[in-house]
Amino acid sequence: MRTPEEILPALGRLPLAREDVDRGCEVRAREGWLEQVWTRDETRVLWVSGGRAPVLGGQLVLTRPSGELPDGAVYLGRSTAGPAPESGPPAELILLVSPDHPSLDGGEAGGRPVPSPEDVAWVGLRDVAAALTDRDAGVFVEAVAIANWHAVHTHCPRCGTPTEITQSGWVRVCPRDRSEHFPRTDPAIIVTVTDHEDRVLLGNNVAWGPRMYSTLAGFVEPGESLEAAVVREIHEESNLTVHSPVYLGSQPWPFPQSLMLGYTAVTDHPEDAAADREEVAHVRWFSRQELAEAVDGGEITLPGSASISRALIEHWFGGALPEPRTLQN
Fold first, then answer.
1. Using one digit for the tens of pLDDT, what is the confidence trace for 244-279?
2. How many CA atoms lie within 13 A of 199 on its CB side?
3. By CB count within 10 A, which of 237, 298, 316, 325 is most buried?
């Protein structure tokens, strides 16, 4: 029997695609499930404030429930991590969103008590995801994604009535027309384009600084296959016609609600490359040596280690790229 790692596509387990939590889809719809879980000794709460969560020693800080179950709580699932000290005991996990940093008295990280709340750093998912355990990375991604959905789907899209949260935070129901509204995920393709010399095409987005380069990406349109989206988006942004799209892996990108699907594709006419100047300011071909030298010298910067773009580039490169020695003005 093959191991889970052997079943994964070429990019392997990406930083935001790691999960060690049973989301409990079959139990979270039960009436009163959240109230029941709130009273259990093994339940732990993850607080998120402004898209940031508390972290200590490379692990999420969780607290025990206290008082009445607050409004807006979301059931994240049950940890499948074993009772090893570094992962903490299996726990029921609940998300609470707060506009301010709540008190973390009695909090714990990896099953160990937090010495002092002042030792805790409140950090964003992109800042810390790659360093977290599988459980913590998966829980943080899930929490941010569902919190972002709730934040912008407070009213019924049909009649404008404020909706009510049901099914442990995973469904919103309109009390007027009884329509149900579920969390949405927007698929987006992201692509390493190569040519006959096995160079890679990277682009500089108009919203970034002039040194940042990344793979090209775009959202999948209604009624469109992923492969068709690869061909269309690459042509729109770089004027290139590509073929032979190959799927390499995926990971959620909950900023606010995307699922990034990584591909590679080939062009036979690299000389046609031209940025659209609307989304992409510049496009540029790189050999492996050229890219390594440009990154090492600080001429360009690449996306961070938590992104699938970095994984796609390094998959093409054949290993980790060097960190820059200098940054030019």
1. 999 999 999 999 899 999 999 999 999 999 999 999
2. 19
3. 237
